[in-house]
Amino acid sequence: MKTKKIISLALIALPALLMVFSATMKFIAAPQVVEGLTKIGFLPKFPLPVLALLETISVVLLLIPKTWRIGFFLVCGYLGGATAIEVVGSQPPTAAILLTLIWIGTYLKDRSFFTGATAK
Known about the structure:
Blueprint: H1 2-27, H2 31-39, H3 48-63, H4 68-88, H5 94-109, H6 112-115
């Protein structure tokens, strides 16, 4: 049981850390991020700090025990959008991989979340 909890935590924490790094790069407007988002047409239509803030809030809510469920849905929405952009832009599906890890980690954390059964 303890092993499953550790694996679940790792599968959720790794993508969360990568998303925090991504948000940090957006907050500081790293040239690679600005160039990539401009190339796909995302900038200047959407302010970069707002995107970074949305990403940060989603991850923070995912990592707080009392709000992890809403954080899960917000992260899924964020990474789902990122996956769509990557697919349309013929880029490697990095967001889809992170999303898959979060889904597996969440399933190991609380299976009832996916089955509709009441939690123990």
